[in-house]
């Protein structure tokens, strides 16, 4: 099939490349000329394991192409995926849909034959209706169908998630579009993915509901971890004990720092915003947002306590600063709250991340990037394991830490407390 992905961010690039790898002809479009130029040279703008190989392979065999010409690309394609960003509105909580509507207007003037136009970006309920109105204004023939087909890819696992999704959700009442999309996704369905056809609005809401539910699960376990800390219980026993109940499931029950990334914080706020517009109170999700926003402060209090209220001049080292492992993404990472707060209190913060130096910390006093783990750990008063990179899973602390006074605060519960204590370390985790 001939596909066009508009927007070469996370969603558009990963989905476009994977669709081409399944044998489709795909044009990935972006208005950013430099980005397209780089992509044509095989330079990938995001860090995603396995993506570069797939781009090179499919570009070489000419199933994948890149363009800045939206109109021409739309004309050449049968299925158009809108994959542009829907960030939180500046100063607000709802999603900024300006990029979506701009793209819709351009698509409207480029329809030369029947097109299936799909929102893959995360968009609030009724956005599909708006897109339909915009395109209809430009195109009276109505030879198009607007469908919602949300993505459920995780950063760092995006290729695997694309190839082996739990489900493919297609929101449309149009029988022809549904039939075509079922064929497009047939290779994934044959590997076990569930194909679910719903109304367009339902598909839009499924995406938000899923992210909000996962965010709730994490927040739930994070709050229970606070209780475990006061009652000498290991939170991991609770996660396993709860997770063995098939109705609950064990995934996304890992306690840690505040959840971050480009999706959960944005989407939880956006679903509340949508509900408010319909005068519906989503009180559970509202408290999840509040609890998560407070989590970094809570962990900072713990840091303060562990350092006996003496943060000034203390050398604190962060292992990992991205919001999770296998990504270079810093968006809404809890390190963006914790590191500046510690710097303000006079700590000397160093950090090491496998994805390198982060410009986000430039403006803070006494915050330095270290090129390797050894340098980072050297002479630290406190080591904070912030992100669960594999690189941090078997550190020989004994060879790096010369004084047993060093405190290790493992915010991802990577190490065994008993083994660390046996080795004489002052080791602390989350909820245990
Ligand atoms: C999330 C969803 O998992 C994807 O299904 C969805 O497609 C994506 O958002 C999106 O809307 O595009 P992502 O933001 O890449 O994916 O990252 P997750 O792996 O979900 O992690 C999000 C945050 O939750 C991270 O800060 C992570 O550290 C935290 N987390 C996750 C926990 O603290 N505990 C867990 O058990 C799981």
Itemize the secondary structure elements and their pairings.
Layout: E1 2-6, H1 10-21, E2 25-29, H2 33-40, H3 51-60, E3 64-67, H4 70-76, E4 79-82, H5 98-108, E5 115-119, H6 127-138, E6 144-148, H7 158-163, E7 167-171, H8 175-184, H9 186-189, E8 194-198, H10 200-231, H11 235-243, H12 264-277, H13 283-306, E9 315-319, H14 335-344, E10 348-352, E11 367-369, H15 373-377, E12 382-385, H16 397-400, E13 407-410, H17 417-422, E14 426-428
Parallel strand pairs: 1-2, 1-4, 2-3, 4-5, 5-6, 7-8, 9-10, 9-12, 10-11, 12-13, 13-14
Helix pairs in contact: 1-3, 5-6, 10-12, 10-13, 12-13, 13-14
The structure holds uridine-5'-diphosphate-glucuronic acid.
Residues 122, 151-155, 211, 214, 218, 252-254, 256, 259-261, 263-264, 323-324 line the site of uridine-5'-diphosphate-glucuronic acid.
What does this structure look like?
- This protein is of the alpha/beta class.
- It folds into 3 domains: 2-198, NAD(P)-binding Rossmann-like Domain (Rossmann fold), CATH 3.40.50; 208-290, N-(1-d-carboxylethyl)-l-norvaline Dehydrogenase, domain 2 (Orthogonal Bundle); 295-428, NAD(P)-binding Rossmann-like Domain (Rossmann fold, 3-Layer(aba) Sandwich), CATH 3.40.50.720.
- The radius of gyration is 24 Å and the shape is elongated.
- The strands form 3 sheets. It has a 6-stranded parallel β-sheet with strand order 3-2-1-4-5-6, sandwiched between helices. It has a 6-stranded parallel β-sheet with strand order 11-10-9-12-13-14.
- The protein has 17 helices and 14 strands.
- Bound molecules: uridine-5'-diphosphate-glucuronic acid.
């Amino acid at each position: 099939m001939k596909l066009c992905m508009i927007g070469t961010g996370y969603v558009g690039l990963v989905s476009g490349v994977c669709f081409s790898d399944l044998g489709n002809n795909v044009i990935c479009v972006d208005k950013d000329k430099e980005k397209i130029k780089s992509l044509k040279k095989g330079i990938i703008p995001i860090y995603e394991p396995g993506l570069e190989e797939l781009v090179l392979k499919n570009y070489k065999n000419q199933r994948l192409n890149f363009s800045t010409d939206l109109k021409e690309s739309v004309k050449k394609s049968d299925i158009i995926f809108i994959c542009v960003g829907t960030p939180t509105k500046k100063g607000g909580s709802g999603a900024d849909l300006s990029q979506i509507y701009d793209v819709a207007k351009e698509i409207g003037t480029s329809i030369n034959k029947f097109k299936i136009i799909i929102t893959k970006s995360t968009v609030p309920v009724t956005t599909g209706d708006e897109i339909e109105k915009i395109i209809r204004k430009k195109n009276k023939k109505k030879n198009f169908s607007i469908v919602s087909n949300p993505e459920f890819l995780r950063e760092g696992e995006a290729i695997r998630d694309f190839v082996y999704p739990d489900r493919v959700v297609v929101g449309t009442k149009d029988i022809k579009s549904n039939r075509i999309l079922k064929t497009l996704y047939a290779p994934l369905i044959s590997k076990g993915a569930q194909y679910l056809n719903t109304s367009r609005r339902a598909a839009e809401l499924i995406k938000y509901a899923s992210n909000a539910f996962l965010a709730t699960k994490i927040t739930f376990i994070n709050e229970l971890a606070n209780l475990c800390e006061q009652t000498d219980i290991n939170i991991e026993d609770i996660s396993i004990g709860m997770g063995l109940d098939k109705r609950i499931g064990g995934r996304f029950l890992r306690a840690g720092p505040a959840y971050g990334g480009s999706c959960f914080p944005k989407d939880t706020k956006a679903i509340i915003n949508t509900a408010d517009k319909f005068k519906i109170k989503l009180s559970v999700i509202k408290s999840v947002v509040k609890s998560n926003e407070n989590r970094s402060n809570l962990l900072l209090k713990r840091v303060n306590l562990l350092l006996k209220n003496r943060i000034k001049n203390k050398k604190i080292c962060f292992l990992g600063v991205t919001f999770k492992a296998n990504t270079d993404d810093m968006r809404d990472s809890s390190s963006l709250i914790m590191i500046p707060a510690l710097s303000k209190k006079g700590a000397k913060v160093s950090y090491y991340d496998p994805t390198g130096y982060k410009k986000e910390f430039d403006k803070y006093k006494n915050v330095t990037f270290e090129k390797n783990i050894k340098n980072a750990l050297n002479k630290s008063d406190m080591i904070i394991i912030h992100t669960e990179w594999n690189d941090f899973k078997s550190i020989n602390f004994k060879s790096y830490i010369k004084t047993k006074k060093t405190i290790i605060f493992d915010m991802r519960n990577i190490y065994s407390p008993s083994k660390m204590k046996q080795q004489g370390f002052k080791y602390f985790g989350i909820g245990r």
